[in-house]
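Friendly challenge for the regulars: who can give me the structure tokens for this chain first? No prize, just bragging rights.
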Amino acid sequence: MPAASPRPSQRIDGRTARSERTRSAIVEAHVALIREGDLRPTADRIAKQAGVSLRALWSHFADMEALFAASGQLILEQRDETYEPVPTDLPLERRIEAYCHQRARMLEQIAPIAKASSLKEPFSPALQSYRRTHIQRVRDELRTLFAREIGDDEALLNALTAAAMWPTWGTLRDAMGLDVDAARQILTRSVTALLTPR
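First reply, four minutes later:
Bragging rights claimed.
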């Protein structure tokens, strides 16, 4: 007696699962290439890294902008996996120290991503949107961690946010050639100066 054919729903579920795996592989390959230093990976290189055909890539993503959007979401998720909130009840000096250590580590992790994004961000609504998301996350973290010191001082929050964002870190590390420890010390000094009453 011949084996029963899989039910249609099972076949659909299997195709859906394979499609999701392929999509995830493409996004992960895109992010991996950037982290490895390929700041402008082509669709062909991404497909080869993912182990799929170029046709498969374009069947899952209408264009590079759609891939940027999916990759941006993955980067946010990866950031969340390594993020550890600094306790808000620590003394100010310890909060600053812990924040700047974590912020320096995370800025180093996103360095290739930030550099790659800066090349295409002026022309990419998806990348511009993720930049705004990153800024808002930094602002929210600063507002929570240093609530007592910031109060309703919006200018202070803006100054702290600017000090903690990638463009400042990139200037310290790349343009000025400082190592991680020296750049972190400057970040710590900047945050301390902003938060410490004169």
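The mean pLDDT is 91. The radius of gyration is 21 Å. Your move, everyone else.
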